[in-house]
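From the shared-data thread, chain only:
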Amino acid sequence: MIIALAIASFVLKGRHDLTIPSGGVSPDLVKEMNSYYGISEQMFLERFHIFYEKGAPIKKERNIMEFDPRHVEEEGKRIIEFGIKLVEETGNPIIANIGVDRIVRAAGEEALRPLSSAQDPVRQYRGLMFWLVKPTLPWIVERLAPIADIHLKITREHGCTLLYGIKPRTPLYAIQLQPNKAPPIPDLIRIT
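Structure, as tokens:
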């Protein structure tokens, strides 16, 4: 809910998105989520650049590119260079959202090095990068948290979606969709 809104905002301003989807997220789901916020199919094909591991059983479209997890360092450099080229061509920063669980599953612990390397160009070119980490491998969070600028945790308790900041420390917020609103806009309700 929160990341899709940020991505749509970036893209609607003429910027590009680089995505390595989290596990269980298909290009069709990315397209559907962003269509709620006014992203047309044409805009999706032009401004979303989705990277999947080589051989993944997905429908190929012109905005879907493969990466070879056996060569994660080189592929990481290629994706970073692709992002820099987009920034230089458009004059706009990019947004990147990386499903860390997917690249670690495909490439192992070696996948964390390119993630760390991507931080410098993202800052230099005024971009924004989200690392999406599912709790499947807790050691990933322990390795990435110290180098992240902001570390937010989203969890579900008693049927309620909760958000809080670990770095910097923030209060606890409930995430609730505004009723009868299209597109879906989340409200953050501070829990005291």
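The longest helix spans residues 72-90.
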